[in-house]
């Protein structure tokens, strides 16, 4: 096997799963991400004694290749099952929903162990010449690799490739550029007493500006503070994208007050420009062997945590096979 240096842009679950498998196969791996912490939308917000999962709320296991990872994480007390039926769902919809113990970000933090990750570094431009990739950072630093894997939301990948005059060199550049994302908006509430949301502590709403409410105190390992995560539906997130935070928060809180059974004493808003891929590509990942580039993440198959993880794994498996 030829030992190669693989550079991965993005330290969300796709990049982390990809990096760990490549590292286990004996390749040199580094990851670069503009965020302060690994995890992407598997994010947990901590503020004083308050704590919220404000991105992905849970994940499922529908691909049996993913199951061994979940079992290993359960043994290491990284994940646990939250619930298997949403309130009001019929028994045939039963499906285990998993969470990170002490927050969804516990999973990417566990996956970061042993990996060489450069956080808070933004890739400004890519250069490809003589089978070598150069990643030029906004800070001016340059990292080099022989294989490149891009895992950020696909519009960001497309923008980076276009800005580097490389998108038109990829065989499926037009398909990659066709994927669109829905915006997301998370409202993080602090209540003055326990909310009235029954076990398991979440509600999926079909009408109004809100699509999801979760009581974080009912998740394993969380603070017992009364911290509620509210997700606006994509249409409301888009319509209010440029509105003042006060107006947005007031509108959302008013719409769900009867469900909370408690007064709001504090709130915070987080906007997600790329929350869900509306039209994900029906392939597990993209690769161009001639240019030694792979693209993976939540824009492939379906916009779920599991599909992003499997996309990263599939890209790594293909790379390992090609480098033998």
Outline the secondary-structure elements.
Blueprint: E1 5-9, H1 13-24, E2 28-32, E3 44-47, E4 50-53, H2 67-75, E5 79-83, E6 97-100, H3 106-111, E7 116-118, E8 123-129, E9 132-137, E10 142-145, E11 147-150, H4 154-163, H5 173-177, E12 181-191, E13 202-204, E14 210-215, E15 227-232, H6 234-239, H7 245-260, E16 264-277, E17 286-288, E18 293-295, H8 305-322
Parallel strand pairs: 1-2, 1-11, 2-7, 11-18
Antiparallel strand pairs: 3-4, 5-6, 8-9, 9-10, 12-15, 12-16, 13-14, 14-15, 17-18
Helix pairs in contact: 1-8
3D structure, described in words:
By secondary structure, the chain is of the alpha+beta class. The chain folds into 2 domains: 5-180 and 279-322, FAD/NAD(P)-binding domain, CATH 3.50.50; 182-277, Polyamine Oxidase, Chain A, domain 2 (Alpha-Beta Complex), CATH 3.90.660.10. 25% of the residues lie in helices and 30% in strands. The chain has helices at 13-24, 67-75, 106-111, 154-163, 173-177, 234-239, 245-260, 305-322; strands at residues 5-9, 28-32, 44-47, 50-53, 79-83, 97-100, 116-118, 123-129, 132-137, 142-145, 147-150, 181-191, 202-204, 210-215, 227-232, 264-277, 286-288, 293-295. The protein has a 6-stranded mixed sheet with strand order 7-2-1-11-18-17, with helices on one face. Strands 13-14-15-12-16 form a 5-stranded antiparallel sheet. Helix 1 (13-24) packs parallel to helix 8 (305-322).
